[in-house]
Amino acid sequence: MAETLDKVDVVTVGVGWTGGIVAAEAAKAGLSVVGLERGKNRGTEDYQHVHDEYRYAIRYELMQDTSKETITFRNTRDERALPMRRMGSFLLGENVGGAGTHWNGQTWRFLPYDFEIRSMTEERYGEDKLGDDKGYRWQDWGITYDELEPYFTQFDLTIGLAGEENPLGGHRSEPFPTPPMIETPMLKLFNDAAKGMGLHAHMMPSANMTQQYTNPDGQTLQPCQYCAFCERFACEYDAKSSPETTVIPTALETGNFDIRTHANVVEVLTDEDDDSLVSGVRYIDTLSGEEFIQPADIVVLNSYVFNNYKLLRVSDIGEQYDPETEEGTLGRNYGYQTFGGARGFFDTQFNTFMGAGALGAGLDDYNGDEFDHSDLDFLHGGNIAVTQTGSRPIATNITRPDTPSWGAEFKKETIENYTRTIRVQGQCATTPHKDNYLDLDEEYTDAYGLPLVQLTYNFTDSDRTRTKYLADRCGEILEEMGANEVVVDEEIGDYDIVPYQSTHNTGGTVMGDDPETSVVNNWLQHWDRDNLFVVGAGNFPHNSGYNPTSTVGALAYRCAEGVITYSEDGGRLED
C-alpha cells in the first residue's frame, strides 16, 4: 500500500537541467517544489578524483545502469527489438544533475529556420520539397525563434555562456556574458582557412568558463583549466556550467525546494474527479522498496527523452502513435543525429591532449537553409566545426586507412598521429520519418516491472545524402588548411545502437500548435491534462545541426513561466 505524502504546489520528475530550471523559477516565485530524482545526490565535492579515463569514459561511471533500465532497439517494424545491454550509441545520465553533469558544454541556439522549417521550406521551394510522399514528416514547432529568444538569453545568463557573435545565427538581444575561449593554433588554422574560402567561422559558444562569472542568481563559476576532462566527466573545479553549480543551488537557497533522491517515479496519476487534470505521481524508494504517492497541483516531467515518453505511456496519458495509420501523437518523430566529416594528417604537432569540452570553432554556411537546396535531395544541413576536447590515450588510436589493427605498424601510426591529425566534422540534422518512433516493448521489462521503451529507428535516404554532402565540405576545408592527406568519411549505412555517436536523442513528446500532431503546446503543457507539463529534447519535432542543450534550456525557462502562470490562473495557457 503506497503512503500518501503532504501535497505540494509542484513536483518535478528528474533533477537535471530542465528539472533544476523549473524548480528554481517556481521556488523563487514562492511555490513549494519537490524534485524526485531516481539516482543519488552528488556535487562538486564528489569529483575531486574524476580524471580517470577508464572509470568514467570507458566504464561510464556517471551513466544510467542498464541492468535496471535500458531500451530495446530495431531498425524496422518487421525486426525483433533487443535490449541495449551496455551503453552504446548514446549515454544516458543518471543521478542529480543528469546528463548536464557529463556534457561537453557546446551550447548552440537552434536557427530560426528550425522552428518554422515546414512553412519556410514550402515558401521557398514549394510543398513537394518536403518529401511527404517519401514518409518525411517535417512540421513547425508552434513557436518562433523570436518568441523563444528571451528564454535563450535567460539560459545564457544562467550558465555564463562564452562565445562570439555567429554571423549566420538568429539575432541576440544581449551579448555573450563572457568572452570566447582561447583560439589555439589548430583552431586558428581552421578559422583562417574557412574565412579564406569565404565562410563564416567563429569561436564556438561554450559553457566552459573563460573567466570567473557570477550569474544573476548569485551562483559563481570558476575559469576553465583546459584539462580536457569534460565529456563523460564531471568538473571538480566548478568551471563547467552544470545543474549542480547553477540552478539546483538557486532552488535550494529559496527554502521552497526539496530534493528526494532514490525516488523512481513509475506513474503519473490522473485526478479521479476530473480527467483533464493529474493529481500527483507514484514513486518507489529504490533503497527500501517502499511506495509513495506525492500529490501536487502541478506535475512537470523533466526526465530524459525516453523516460518522459514512458511515464506518459504507462500512465495512459495521450494516444500512442501508430506508424501504420499515423494516428496518435505519443512516440512520433523520434530523431537522432549523424556526423559527416574528414580527417587531415599533418606534419605539425598540435597539443590535442589539452583542451576543453567546448573549445572549438564552427561555421553555419552549410546549416539550416543558408545554402540553396533546389538541386539537392535533402533539407537542412549541419554545423561544421573543429573541436579540441582532448585526446585521451585509451580511446585515441588514429591510423590511416588500411593500417593493421595491431602490431608494430599500428603502434607506430598511433604514436605518430596522436597529435598530428585534425578532424573537421559536420553535425547533421536528421529528417523525421513516419517509421521512426517510440513504443513500449511487449517482452522486456525494467527492474520495477514496467515495460522497456522500444526504439524503432533508421537513417533516411536524405540523412545519408546530407551527411555525405557535409563530409565532402569538411574535406575541402582540410585541403585549404594544408593537410598532407585528407580522408573523407564514406556514406553512412543503417543506424546501429553501437558505437557511441551522440547523446542527442529527440522527439516522442513533440510540441506544436495542433493536438493532432503534437503532445504539448508551446508552453510545454500537455494537451490532455492542463496541470501536466513535459519538457526536454523530446519536444523537438525534428533534430537540428547543433547540440540540443541551449534549446532544451530555453524551453525549460518557457515551461517554468507557464507553470507559474498556471499556478496563478489555471486553465489552458494561450499565447
From TrEMBL:
Biological source species: Salinicoccus halitifaciens
Protein name: Gluconate 2-dehydrogenase alpha chain
Domain Glucose-methanol-choline oxidoreductase N-terminal, chain residue ranges per copy: 219-333
Keywords, in A-Z order: FAD, Flavoprotein, Oxidoreductase
Annotated EC: 1.1.99.3
GO MF term set: gluconate 2-dehydrogenase (acceptor) activity
Domain Glucose-methanol-choline oxidoreductase C-terminal: start-end pairs: 432-556
Pfam families per record: GMC_oxred_C, GMC_oxred_N
Family note: Belongs to the GMC oxidoreductase family.
Keyword Flavoprotein: yes
Keyword Flavoprotein: yes
InterPro entries: FAD/NAD-bd_sf, GMC_OxRdtase_N, GMC_OxRtase_C
Matches recorded under Gene3D superfamilies: FAD/NAD(P)-binding domain
